[in-house]
Amino acid sequence: MYWLPLGLFVGILWAQLDTVVIHSSNIVCQTCRRTIIRGLSTQKGIRFVEVDVPKKDIVVIYRADKTTVDKIRHAIARLGYDADTVSRDPAAFERLPICCRAPHSH
């Protein structure tokens, strides 16, 4: 068995992670936040998701060798939310709870 120094091992793991901030104009409440976190957390290559409701931003830490920013944007759109220039899936949007379809912020 070959042992790597702990610092080198951690460096290799972190070297594979990238971060992207995606803006979604139709995030309006904490239910939106939970829906996005749950929906993205199961996607291949995604390691961390946080949603800033007031800023309408989604922060995603992901493995670039497992997924792409474009795939992440489309996954958000399939949940019913806009993702930068990718428009939300209209059918998914209609399935969201009524609070998430509100045109105003909560």
CATH top level is Alpha Beta
Q: In the residues, how many domains can be counted? A: 1
Strand arrangement within the widest β-sheet reads 1-3-2
Give the overall shape, derived from the CA principal axes: globular
Number of DSSP helical runs: 4
Task: Please trace the helix and strand order, writing H or E for each element.
Answer: HEHEEHH
Q: Which architecture name does CATH use?
A: 2-Layer Sandwich
How many strand units?
Answer: 3
- Helix content bin: 25-40%
Beta-strand fraction estimate: 15-25%
Mean pLDDT figure: 87
- Which structural class best describes the helix and strand composition? alpha+beta
Separation, N- and C-terminal Cα atoms: 55 Å
CATH topology descriptor: Alpha-Beta Plaits
Spans where pLDDT lies below 50 across 5 or more residues = none
* Biggest beta-sheet profile: 3 strands, antiparallel
Describe the protein.
The protein has 106 residues and is of the alpha+beta class. The chain has a single domain, classed as Alpha-Beta Plaits (2-Layer Sandwich). 36% of the residues lie in helices and 20% in strands. It is built from four helices and three strands; from the N terminus they run αβαββαα. It has helices at residues 6-15, 30-41, 69-78, 90-95, and strands at residues 17-23, 46-52, 57-63. The chain has a three-stranded antiparallel beta sheet with strand order 1-3-2. Strand 2 (46-52) and strand 3 form a beta hairpin. The mean pLDDT is 87.
